[in-house]
Amino acid sequence: MVAVNSTVRPFFLAWLTLALLLFALGRLTRAGDELAIAGFVTATEQEASEGYFAVGGDTMVVVKQGSSLQRWFQLHSGQRIRVTLESAGPEN
């Protein structure tokens, strides 16, 4: 039988308690329900006319052609923006 060191157990319980507390705090703040992406808006003329815009180096945003959102992206091309996505919740 292996003897458990008496100093290891309190540290393990403290770390476990801290981890559970941080997990619960994260769930209560609903931090997992949103995603923020920041970067410069870039698009060629053809991409912009088709509704394709790059935000930063790794995100592509596709918008409906002729929409006000497409016009907004075209006006802000070359500028730094932040796009935040969050869940809308259940629809009734």
Fold and architecture overview:
By secondary structure, this protein is an alpha+beta fold. The protein has a domain at 34-86. Helix content is 38%, strand content 26%. It contains 3 helices and 4 strands, in the order αβαββαβ. The chain has helices at 8-28, 45-50, 68-75, and strands at residues 34-42, 52-55, 59-62, 80-86. Strands 3-2-1-4 form a 4-stranded antiparallel β-sheet. The longest helix has 21 residues, at 8-28. The protein is elongated, with a radius of gyration of 23 Å. It starts with 7 loop residues before the first helix and ends in a 6-residue tail after the last strand.
Key features of this structure:
single chain, 92 residues, four-stranded antiparallel β-sheet, 3 helices
Task: Tell me the number of strands.
Answer: 4
Mean pLDDT rating: 84
H-E string: HEHEEHE
Low-confidence stretches: none
Sheet of most strands: 4 strands, antiparallel
Adjacency order of strands in the biggest sheet = 3-2-1-4
> What percentage of residues falls in helices of 4 or more residues?
25-40%
Give a quick precis of the structure.
By secondary structure, the chain is an alpha+beta fold. The protein has three helices and four strands. It has a domain of 53 residues.
Write the layout of secondary structure elements.
Layout: H1 8-28, E1 34-42, H2 45-50, E2 52-55, E3 59-62, H3 68-75, E4 80-86
